[in-house]
Amino acid sequence: MAEIKQEPMSQKKLEYIRRERTKEMRLQLISFAMMIFLTFIAFGLVALDFDEAFVTPVVLGLAFLQVILQFFYFMHMKDKGHEFIKLMMLVGMFFAISFCVTFVYIVWIGAPI
């Protein structure tokens, strides 16, 4: 079995790693707090019984914002080396939105074929 060769870290490198991890954890906590706040806003809008034409797009926009935050902060899409994954996700979102728009048009707006 292969031996793992570990070299001791210098104090300077150890401090740098701790600072980076602290910064990353702070960003994760801020992102989590923002998502909880956005969820409270969405629940509040529904609970306050505002007009449905106002609440629906706002709640969908907040949901989209939460998806973006989760991709970038919890799934580490902000880090280097994820360009291909980002491209594939964008292509998938393009097709999903295209299908939804097409079927909404066919079912509710357009004339039957």
General description of the model:
The protein is mostly helical. Helix content is 77%, strand content 0%. The protein folds into two domains: 14-77; 80-113. Helix 1 (11-47) runs antiparallel to helix 2 (52-74). The longest helix is centred in the first third of the chain and has 37 residues, at 11-47.
Question: How would you concisely characterize the structure shown here?
Answer:
77% of the residues lie in helices and 0% in strands.
Main features:
mainly alpha; 2 domains
Cα Rg: 22 Å
Give unreliable regions as ranges: none
Distance between the termini: 66 Å
- Derived structural class: mainly alpha
The largest β sheet comes out as:
none
Q: Would you spell out the secondary-structure blueprint of this structure?
A:
Elements lengths: L10 H37 L4 H23 L8 H27 L4
Helix pairs in contact: 1-2
